[in-house]
Sequence to fold (519 residues):
Amino acid sequence: MYLTQGLHRCMQQTPDSRATVFRGRTRTFRELHGRVARLAGALQAIGMAPGDRVSMLALNSDRYIEYMLGVWWGGGVLNPVNIRWSVPEIVYSLDDCDTGILIVDDQFLPMVPGILAAAKRLPHVIYAGEGRAPDGMLDYEAMIDAATPVADMFRGGQDLASIMYTGGTTGKPKGVMQTHLNLWASAVSRMAEYREGQRVFVSLHVAPLFHTAAMARAVGHIVAGDTQVIEPGFVPAEVLKTVEREQIEELLLVPTMLQALLADPTFGQHDLSSLQRIYYGASPISAGLLDRALAALPDIDFFHAYGMTEASPLITVNPPANHSHEARASGLYRSAGRASLGVTMRIVDPDGNEVPRNTVGEIVVLGANITSGYWNRPKETAEALRNGWLHTGDGGYMDDDGYLFIVDRLKDMIVTGGENVYSAEVESVLSLHPEVATCAVIGIPDTNWGEAVHAVVVPHAGKTPSETSLREHCRAALANYKCPKSFEFRTEMPLSAAGKILKRDLRDQHWQGQTRQVS
Fold:
């Protein structure tokens, strides 16, 4: 299956329905169809060949949807850039998969000189902002206006659709390869779990579209012919205004966003009666937050999804029935739900054997949504994919009814505010500080972000590095969310007999009294 199919279908069946809405700019499916065909032609004219990578470094907008569809229409592959990355991190992702075209908006123009100075291959830079293109850059709107529309290349199935960079235990991000079939299968699974027949929804994007959850959700909306209302990012007061103004029916939030929405001073001043559904992920919802949300939004259906980039991303769904006041006693609101349609899930021991129900093991999954591997990383691919099964690195158990409960993270990842942070990447930067002898980075509980990045440092003899200097050192090479929020200084690390740092021992003092070692 090919990911432009939904646009063709909408052009045929509902061409004058609203496709995208952004800051007062509305485009129908007929208009979107024409712009996508011309954007594809413009990208081909500057050298995009089948399978070539195209990046976008931008806040959410209607142009982000056009970027996705236009690249696919023209035969290319997406490489969406994390908007929270530093210049070195961005350059690494561009170089790693040899990206030849970079689209940027006004917000990220100041980063372009640094990117061009460091990138091995100088990409064509396309300005997709609201003003005039700076000297040396191509103008997005002018390119579309001047381009001749081209025919859809209809790449699909096992053809590569996107490379989504996610943290890696080697200290560098890994490019997760997602095919057209992977993203299509996940979209159809989501629709089967969430939708009501053939009706279309008015949906709001506030989560960043470079992230696999939001991007995959956009794919599903294109397949279904929904109206996608887009905000540049998450600002609680603006979300509330937009829900009322555009009569939004559904949106995706992480629990910290929901908490901020309920706490906003303007909450209660807007008519939110159109809102029917809230999807959340990245972490489970706390009992206290769920109670507040149900009291403030009593008619809303809450869905929780567990997923990961390697699963494009959907693995399990926890439906509204498990979020009600009545369901609290069952404890199922703490579950990650059951395997979504099209996904087979098991809990296995270290040898890959399925364990009995209610026994903790590693979560492994199989399905058409599962990645074919990591870009140019055969070793990591072989470790993650064994006999077709994706080994998630997450620990959990399955109850007798097939509900998944996640209890620990087997791989060394921290989830802070919905973003993945891999400790090895932070450690590799921190270890370069001249006063650091050794270090370990762990996740500790945080009431606002689920987990916070915490660094344990053993200084060189006679050195006393300050927290300020360590933070500044990290910020020079890492996105802010990856930088440690707190530090702990020790004279030595707890080590195993093999000399490996025992991170569990470092974590225990912070997680005492917690029911889970993952947020």
Notes: The domain at 417-511 is CATH 3.30.300.30 (GMP Synthetase; Chain A, domain 3). Residues 358 and 399 are 5 Å apart (CA to CA). Residues 29-45 form the longest helix (17 residues). The chain has a mean pLDDT of 92.
